[in-house]
Write a structure and sequence with these properties.
With 268 residues, this protein is α/β, with parallel strands linked by helices. It is 29% helix and 22% strand. It has helices at residues 5-16, 47-59, 75-81, 144-151, 175-183, 193-196, 236-259; strands at 28-32, 35-36, 40-41, 63-67, 90-95, 102-103, 108-117, 137-140, 161-164, 188-192, 206-210, 224-231. The strands form two sheets. Strands 1, 4, 5, 6, 7, 8, 9, 10, 11 and 12 form a ten-stranded mixed beta sheet that branches. Helix 2 (47-59) crosses helix 7 (236-259).
Length: 268
């Protein structure tokens, strides 16, 4: 093969030229609350944090957060200021079929639960159990539980009820509901299990029972929900990629949830 002077110069120039910098992988941009354990915080201690880390790893993307409170103006406003505004691309924990975001396939199912001192032997089986008539009930406001209690006339009943605003007040931890139960301020707590699951190991005397879905008083009452990841309504591509991650990594996601005390239940 014959080389000309010009071709040799070109080859030498190519060898001497620095390699072009490698393009950085696009980050998985997650919308999350900076201070709402057991869900998430800036220290990465919540179950949503660990789920986000697992998903980013499966996608081969670095993880990046946009922090905003779920609770100061409510979850719809949180989504409006973050996901819908394009500041981030995915929320790790939304009800499947949510109207407020495009949801992936569910990666877990959890439920509202009754929580009470296991030594009390209360005969509680459902929201219609007569035992609730004589117990002071604690509940989380703005939830299906509040609606169910109203239907049965139990709000402000003879034994009293106490509503907690942990889903709206960023200054309150969900653990205050367990503290109220432990102190005797309330007899039974009815709340979303993932909100307290991460704290339950500190209260070994407390027992939890699933609140069953009911269809005995008018419209169906739903207390168990499949939970998904949420993306913008038009982001079909990311939704499908996340669906694939969930399908391939369900065992890992389930293990993370169990480590964080999230109650996992079968669909009714």
């Amino acid at each position: 093969m014959k080389f000309t002077v010009g071709s040799i110069v070109l080859v030498l120039s190519a060898i001497a030229a620095p390699l072009a910098p490698r393009a950085e992988a696009q980050a998985l941009r997650v919308c999350a609350d900076p201070d709402y354990l057991p869900f998430s915080n800036q220290a990465g201690e919540g179950f949503e944090n660990e789920i986000a880390e697992a998903v980013a790893r499966a996608l081969g993307q670095p993880l990046e957060y946009t922090w905003a409170s779920y609770r100061e103006r409510g979850f719809p406003q949180f989504l409006g200021n973050t996901l819908e505004a394009g500041a981030c691309d995915v929320v790790m924990n939304v009800p499947y079929g949510s109207r407020e975001a495009r949801s992936t396939q569910p990666y877990y199912i959890s439920s509202y639960v009754f929580v009470f001192d296991g030594g009390r032997n209360y005969n509680i089986r459902s929201m219609s159990s007569p035992a609730l008539d004589s117990l002071t009930i604690g509940f989380e406001r703005e939830t299906p539980v509040e609606d169910g209690l109203k239907r049965r006339g139990l709000i402000g009943g003879p034994a009293g009820t106490i509503g907690f605003d942990v889903g709206e007040d960023a200054a309150q931890s969900p653990e205050i509901m367990l503290e109220a139960l432990e102190s005797g301020l309330i007899d039974v707590l009815i709340t979303w299990q993932p909100a307290i699951g991460g704290f339950l190991e500190r209260y070994p005397n407390l027992q939890t029972l699933v609140v069953p879905n009911e269809r005995t008083l008018g419209a169906p009452e739903q207390y168990s929900f499949p939970m998904s990841m949420g993306v913008r309504q038009d982001d079909v591509t990311l939704q499908r990629r996340l669906d694939d991650v969930i399908a391939r990594n369900q065992a890992e996601l389930t293990a993370i949830l169990r480590r964080h005390g999230v109650g996992l239940y079968a669909a009714e």
